[in-house]
C-alpha cells in the first residue's frame, strides 16, 4: 500500500463501515488518475512509518487464497473502494483464477502465477494478505496432516520481505521471503496473515482471548508454526497483523454451505453433543476486519477474527432452523462423525469460546454481533 502514515490518537477510534459517498468516490478516482498506485490510509499522523491513511488514496493489494470463500469477498470489497488487486496463484490454478476473476468483469485484478510475477506484484503492492491453506474438514491421514501444515507454513514463508497490503495464494516460494527481499522501502508496509482460533486448543469451560496461551493438540501446533513463519517478516519495515479466524458464516462457503442443504431437506441438527462452543464471524465482518487491518496503523499483532458473542453449536442449529423454517431435530452422533473423519472430527466435535478482546478495544464495529442477525441476513440471500 512514498507514503505518509497517519496514526489515531492514543485512544483508537472505531472506523465506520459505510459505503463511500459520491464525492469521496470521485475524489478517489481523480486521485488514481493523478498518482497511479498509492496506499490507503487513515486521517491523522504521529510519525514512524510509511503507511498511507487517506480515504482519497488507493491501495494495491496482492492476495494468496483470493479464489477462496473469504478471498473472493475481499477482492470485491477492495475493488468497490477503487483499489487494485493482484491475485497470487499457482500455475496449475491459473485457469480457476481466470474463471473466478474474468478480465472483462474484473479489470482491476492482475493474476500472477509465475515466480517473477509474484515478485513484481509484491514489490509494487502497498500490502499483503495471506489467506492460503488446505481445508481441514477432512480425514487426517499422515499425508493429509503434513499437507495441512505445509500448505500454510510454506506459503506464508514466501511473504517475508515486502510491505503494506498483500493477499497471497499458495506458491513454491514463500510470501514472507518475497516481502523480505524488497525490504528497502519499495515493497508493502503491512502484511495481514490468516491463522485460526485452533491456536487455543479446545475447551467447553474456558474462554480465550489474544493473551491466552496456545493449546497442545495438532491444530494448535499447526497454528503456532503458521504464525511463526509470518513473524519472520522484517517487522522494522512491515506492520504485521495475525488474524485468528473462527468459523466464517456465509451462504457460499464455510460451515453453512454444508449445513443449509441438510436443514432444507429436514435433516438438520447439531453434530455430536451440541454443547461444544462455536466461535463464529459473519463473512462481511471478517472482510471488514481484514480491510481495516490493512489501512489502520492501530491494528497490529494478534487479533481474534470472531464475533463478540460465541454460542454453543446447539444454539446455532436452533437459530438456523428458525431462519430457514426447518426443525433442528436430527443430531449426528459423534461416533458417526469420528468414523467418517477420524482424528479430523475434532474440527466439528470440539470447540472453544474465543472472544475478540483486541478488536473490541480498537473499536471495531460489527455488522452482526449476534448469530441470530447474521443467520437472518444470510437466509435472505438464499
Automatic annotation (TrEMBL):
Bias kind Low complexity: ranges: 18-28
CDD domains (UniProt xref): SDR_a8
Domain NAD-dependent epimerase/dehydratase as annotated: residue spans: 62-298
Domain DUF1731 per the UniProt entry, residue ranges: 332-378
Region (Disordered), start-end ranges: 1-31
SUPFAM superfamilies: NAD(P)-binding Rossmann-fold domains (SSF51735)
Top-level taxonomic group: Eukaryota
PANTHER family attached to this UniProt entry: EPIMERASE FAMILY PROTEIN SDR39U1 (PTHR11092:SF0), SUGAR NUCLEOTIDE EPIMERASE RELATED (PTHR11092)
Protein name: Epimerase family protein SDR39U1 homolog, chloroplastic
Source organism of this protein record: Triticum turgidum subsp. durum
Source taxonomy: Eukaryota, Viridiplantae, Streptophyta, Embryophyta, Tracheophyta
